[in-house]
Amino acid sequence: MINSKYFLKGILCAKEFDSPAIALGLSFLAIGALLKNLGFTIQESIFSTFLTYALPGSLVMAESILIGVSLLNLFFAVWLVNARLYPMTVSLMPLLKHESQPKWKFYISCHFVAVSSWLILQNNYKEIEQKYRVDFWIGIGTATWLIAIFSTIIGYYSADFLNREMLIGLAIINPIYFTCTMIGVMKSVQLNISIILGAILGPIFYFVSPDWCVLIGGFIAGSIAFLFGEKNVS
Amino acid sequence: MLIILITSLATYISRFLGAFTSEVIDENTKIYRWFNYLAYSTLAALISRMIIFPAGTLAESNYLSRFIVVLAAIIIFKITKKNLVYPTLFSAIIMFLLSSTNI
Fold this sequence. Notes:
- Chain A is an all-alpha fold and 234 residues long.
- Chain A is built from 13 helices and no strands.
- In chain A, helix 1 crosses helix 9 (133-158), helix 2 packs across helix 3 and helix 8 (115-124) packs antiparallel against helix 9 (133-158).
- With 103 residues, chain B is mostly helical.
- In chain B, 46% of the residues are buried.
- At the A-B interface, helix 2, helix 3, helix 4, helix 5 and helix 6 of A face helix 1, helix 2, helix 3 and helix 4 of B.
């Protein structure tokens, strides 16, 4: 089944002082408060984070409820905004693969793919033996997932005490945390190109298509970085 | 409840397809490297869009305050030798103060 030693090691990664879990927790605090203001019950709020576990997707869901879109529109809006999880999962799973590990672990644990857990794994996987990386990953995912769920609960119950300015303060945490993390990982020319170009092209393509701008901008920037790297290598 | 299930399904599809596709992709292949850059660039595009064209609560703040907070956070990040906690916490405090004073 799951190797408890590596599972616990993964869980403990989330408690590091500069772990992404802090930003994650504070961001879901804001989501909990937002869901309460939208009229969700505590059970619905918990289920939302439990089943979705993706911040932008939750925001889109909240916006869609406010605007009153159809279920089909909601599905496509959430799918588009969370489509970034596809390349993230593709780039993460090969790091975890081992012939002795059953496939169900990968298909269930892919639910844990989110920016914070992805970053924790990217920073730590090299220290873990290949065979047990998936157990380590399940530990990281479980920890960040539980943090998100408990933060949603705290946010829900503290909604009455948080004013508009406090919620704005909480809402900036996630983008700031990830901005700094991205700056921190810029250690090769290819990564610099993909991150800087992605940050420029994403908002530029917003004027062409607000729904597709992240994917189009990311695709072009990542492809240019890849081609640049391949040209230099060859 | 149906809204939550639709949102969850739409989110899980990308994760599931990623796990399914990755079965035939090895860590040392060109396609893996390509997807790795795509993952970083897509994240960067998402983050800059969240800051420049925010949704939800953050949309109630103005461009100038967000610009100030991002700049301050990057400076704090550099000063504190790339510690992630200080810029994160201070950004929330600065944003709160700027929003309270309507800047």
